[in-house]
Write a structure and sequence with these properties.
Chains A, B: It comes from Pseudoxanthomonas japonensis. The structure is a homodimer. The first copy, chain A, is an alpha/beta fold and about 350 residues long. Chain A has helices at about 30-40, 65-70, 90-100, 115-125, 165-175, 190-195, 210-215, 240-250, 275-290, 310-325, 335-345; strands at about 20, 45-50, 75-80, 105, 130, 150-155, 180-185, 225-230, 255-260, 265, 270-275, 295-305, 325-330. The radius of gyration of chain A is 20 Å and the shape is globular. The model of chain A is unreliable at about 1-10 (pLDDT under 50).
């Protein structure tokens, strides 16, 4: 039985297409894996499945595992991530139902699928696989701090779960559309599912976290860009250490700060005010200069999903005016996003 | 066969006294475990043992494992830590020699003793134990960021391996000498060996590192002090993430910045200049204020081991004058150290 796959796997090593599992989630921010797969791997997702009590949907057809298997699905992906990465007992019968319907299970939570005895027993009896994409590769080195060749961009957030992965994916697509050799470098479960490779930064032992970031974006041609998915926030009371290790190891030449319009408290930590965009830029540049003194902020990505079109355009324009930097919502695109891409690729700007 | 012990073990659960093993080390800074045990658990160390090529000594008698066993030793402790925590092949025959002489082996490196097949086989055949004190306890929670009761002090370094643990141990001893209820909280292998409890911060999965720091210093009486052993440095190209997680999770009321006189490059990273003491204070206070806005720097601990007495006193006085803060070498003690202890315990100073 295969219980883990190397993070450097090719995407086609994962059984596809997927059925997306939403658990009993009532908070859309916790379903970023499912939303990410819908938006960036739509052609490989046949539908969604969830507990009766779930209040979140991707908008894809609701299918039972048996229906999904009939529609061609080969695996059910756990598309939600609770704080702490636990798998509630209420999910287990539905996960076993998927195995019984002929689907493998793919998870990326801290609690490993293969560590849950009923799942392990069911998978063994049914000849199905439990695949944990959150297992980091073995033999990650301690960071060397040595400068690497090629260009690197890191998305840096004011918080978790507000668009760092989306922004990195959209920038990679835009770079490639301009003929630039660019790679999206995934640091979390969803990104790894989309890209088919990457390192789950938050699952790496702390001493090797910066080394993992160095490994993720190796030496490259002078014209090449790695666009690295950010994690957490440098001001997060639980995850700032991960964010700092990723910043130091990535050695970005360019950062793009990501924010969600209207969010003023850390998600799940209501007693912690969100840092301002200005403070986030300043902190990231101060800390990032330690391993790349040439680091600069090219602009801001603002998630305006909660706003109508006209309001969003006003917010983006007003934020750009206030900061003196390009500000765009990559999901909306347009001239603002073009200006952000221009600023990322501008040379000699410091 | 016991291959791991919980980090919350009592010190007397470890087989003692120890024989200290120095490997083939030529760099004294890598032998801080051995030096720490000599200085803080001298009555539980019978001697030292090493490869022929070693150039470092603790000054304790050189004993073969058989001689040490005759002298009462019950375990050989690996007293050195290479970068990356590997165990070189050249050590293996000597480690097996210890097992054959009736000693258990205690290690705290990233490479686990129980992961080395020849050791595992020898221990099994001989009925001896391989004990890895670097295994973190299970079920560490994600940090909550919630303020805890009691008082906390964290030692913060300009670099690795320059006196953060010594300083925390000396401050704990001084606090207790004044009748204050104080606990030394160990975050690394040597500290855990000395204290008999603690969490090896650098071995915790990155997402849970701040949570581990919260667990290490729980709610306490209003008059109680936890004196927490720092790790790494906020400016270290490989380990800054660990240091930031420890700072955020510890929520220190007081920091004491630790430095080694004359060190101007990061140990093992000669292309990285050391941050100044001033910059280290400013960075730690800026970042630490996120989880404890009342954080303050009480003073500086300077390792002056390389200086004669008069020069050391001049250096400490000049540094205190420059910074406007108490500056002491805890190993030398004296009035300067008394002033540093006073400043740590001063109330209402911000």
């Amino acid at each position: 039985m295969q219980t883990a796959v190397p993070s450097s796997l090719d995407a086609d090593m994962l059984p596809q297409p997927y059925l997306l599992f939403l658990g009993d989630t009532v908070e859309p921010s916790y379903a970023k894996t499912a939303f990410g797969l819908r938006d960036w791997a739509r052609d490989r997702c046949v539908g969604e499945f969830a507990c009766d009590t779930a209040q979140v949907t991707t908008g894809l057809p609701f299918l039972s595992p048996a229906q999904a298997q009939q529609a061609g699905a080969r695996a059910m992906v756990i598309g939600v991530a609770n704080p702490g990465g636990r798998i509630p007992a209420a999910w287990i019968p539905l996960l076993i139902q998927a195995l019984e319907s002929g689907l493998d299970l793919i998870g990326g939570m801290h609690m490993r699928l293969s560590g849950i005895e009923p799942l392990r027993n069911a998978a063994r009896a049914l000849g199905r696989r439990l695949i944990d994409v959150r297992d980091p590769p073995p033999h990650i080195p301690v960071a060397s701090g040595a400068k690497r060749t090629g260009n690197r961009l890191l998305t840096v957030g004011t918080d978790c779960a507000l668009g760092k992965k989306y922004t990195a994916l959209a920038l990679t697509r835009a770079f490639r559309a301009r003929g630039i050799d660019a790679d999206f470098r995934a640091t979390g479960q969803t990104g790894i599912l989309i890209a088919g490779a990457g390192i789950p930064m938050d699952a790496v032992v702390a001493d090797f976290a910066a080394g993992a970031a160095e490994t993720l974006s190796p030496d490259a041609d002078a014209a090449h860009w790695d666009v690295i998915e950010g994690q957490g926030s440098l001001s997060h009371p639980a995850y700032a250490g991960v964010s700092l290790a990723l910043l130091h190891g990535s050695q970005p030449d360019v950062i793009v700060v990501c924010h969600e319009y209207g969010r003023d408290r850390v998600l799940g930590y209501p007693h912690y005010p969100l840092p301002s965009i200005e403070d986030t830029i300043a902190l990231a540049l101060t800390l990032g200069a330690r391993t790349n003194p040439a680091i600069r902020c090219a602009g801001i990505s603002v998630n305006t999903a909660g706003l109508d079109h006209d309001t969003a355009q006003r917010v983006l324009a007003a934020t750009a005016e206030r900061l003196g930097l390009p500000v765009a919502d990559p999901i909306r695109g347009g001239d603002a996003f073009t200006a952000l891409v221009d600023a990322c690729l501008a040379r000699g700007v410091r």
